[in-house]
Amino acid sequence: MHDVQAVNRPSMPRLAAASLAGTAIEFYDFFVYGTAAALVLGPLFFPTFSPVAGTLAAFGTFGVGFIARPLGSVLFGHLGDRRGRRPVLVASLLLTGAATVAVGCVPSYDSIGIAAPLLLLVLRFLQGLGLGGEWGGAVLLTTEHAPAGRRALWASFPQVGPALGFGLANGVVLALSAALSDAEFARWGWRVPFWAAGALALAGLWLRSSLAESPSFLKIDDHARVPFFEVVRHHGRLVLLTAGGLAVGYAVFYAVTTWSLTYATERLGVSRTVMLTCVMGAVLVQGALVPLVALFADRFGRRPMCVAGCVACALWMLPMVALLATGEPLLMFLGILGALLAFVTAFAVIAAYLPELYEPRVRCTGAAVGYNLGGVLGGALTPIVATMLAERGGRVPWGVGAYLTGIALISLVCFMLLPETRPVPVAAVEPKPATGTGGAARAIG
Question: How distant, in Å, are the alpha carbons of 49, 160, 174, 297, 339 from that of 351?
Fold first, then answer.
C-alpha cells in the first residue's frame, strides 16, 4: 500500500493548487456570511431591534461559527489522525457547502418569525464545524508532502485560500450590489452568493478526488486512540500558546474585513460599493504576498516572522483607525492594507509552523485545535466589541485601535514563549513525555 501511494504521489504544484482551491471555496462560504452580516442580516432577521442592536445580533450569529470551529477541529482532527488527511478534505467541504447553500434558503423574520434567526444560528454553527476541519486537512496534506527546505513555501498556498475566498465572496456581493437596487439586494440578491456555494463545493470535490494520502500518515504504526485527549494531556500549554499567538491575526483580519464595513457604511456614510472595493483590493494584495513571506520563513525561521507580524500589528492599529475615520477611499484603503500586511507577516508561516510543533500521530488534531481556538479568542468577539467601542467613541474609534493593539501585545508574548522549528523535517518531530511546550521544544531542538 505504501509503495502504491509513493508512486502516485502528486507533484507539489498540483497538490498546492488543489489545497488552495479547497480552502478558497470553504473560506468563501465562511466570509460571505460575514459580509452579509455586516450589510443586511440585521434588518432581515432581527427587525425588532434598533439598527445597532440588529447589527450586534447579526455579528453574534457570525461569532457562533468561530465557537464551532474548535469543535470541528476535534471532530475532523480525530478523523484525520485515525483515518487519514484525505477523508477530512471531503467531509469538511461537503458539510460547509451544504450549510452555506441552506443559509441562502432561510426565510426572513417577516415570514417565519423567531425560527428564522434560530435556523441561521444552527447553519452558521455547521459552517464553523466544517471549516474547523478544513484547515487541518488541507495544510497537513501539503506540509507533509513538502521537502523540508521549502516547507513554509508550499504550505503557504492553502493560506492564500482565505484571501481568494474573501475576494470571491466580496466580488460576488459587490457585483450584485452594483447591479441591484438596495430593495432588490435586501429582498433576494444577498441570497445568490450562498446558493453559488453549491457549485463551488462540487468543483472542490472534483479537484481533491485524486490526491494521494500524506506520506507521514502512512508511516504511523501506532495511531492515537483518542487524539484530542492525548493533545490535552501532553501538549495543552502548546495549544494555548499557539491559540494566543494566532488571536491577533484573527482580530485584525475580521476588524478590517467585517467590522469596518459596518463602521464605514453606517457611521461615515461611505457607499457599500466603495467600501467593499477598498477591502477586497487590500485582501487580494495581502494574499498575493503570502508565498513571498513564506520564503523568508524558510530562510530566517518561523518564530521571527510571527514576532515581527505582532510588532507590526501593535504599531499600526491606531494609525489604521485614524485613516479609516477620514472616510476618504484611498486613505481607508491604505489603512486596511497596512493592517493586512502586518497580519500576513505572521499568518503566512503558520501553516508550516503549527504542524512542525506536533508529532504525526496527533498533528491533525493539535494543529487544527490551536489554529481554530485562536479564531475564538481573536475573531469571534472582535466585530461585536469593535462595534460597541466605535458606537461609544467619537468619529475616530480610538478604542478599537487600543483593543487591537492590546491583542497584538498578548500574541507577541505567546509567540516569544514558543520554540523555533526550522528546518527539522516534519516526520522527525517526536514528542517527549512532558506536558506543555517543553517536550516539543526538546524534540525539535
Answer: 41, 11, 30, 11, 20
How far apart CA 156 and CA 138 sit, in angstroms, is 11
The residue written with cell numbers 507590526 in the block is 312
Whether residue 282 is predicted with pLDDT greater than 60 in this model: the reply is yes
Print burial letters for 30-50: b (CB count within 10 Å at least 16), e (below 16).
bbbbbbbbbbbbbbbbbeeee
- Please give the Cα distance from 306 to 343 (Å, whole number): 9
Question: What are the start-end ranges of the E strands in 118-224?
Answer: none
As a whole number, mean pLDDT of residues 327-331 equals: 95
Q: Taking a C-beta distance cutoff of 8 angstroms, is the pair 294, 152 a contact?
A: yes
Residue 22 cell numbers, joined: 479547497
Q: What is the mean pLDDT of residues 203-211?
A: 79
Cis peptide before 423 (omega within 30 of 0): yes
Q: Give the chain's radius of gyration (CA, Å).
A: 21
- The alpha helices in 301-397, defined as continuous H runs, are 302-325, 329-347, 350-356, 363-375, 382-392
Percent of the chain at pLDDT > 90 equals: 40
Q: Which strand (E) or helix (H) includes residue 157? A: helix 157-179
- Predicted model pTM: 0.81
Reported as a pLDDT band with limits 50, 70 and 90, residue 298 is very high
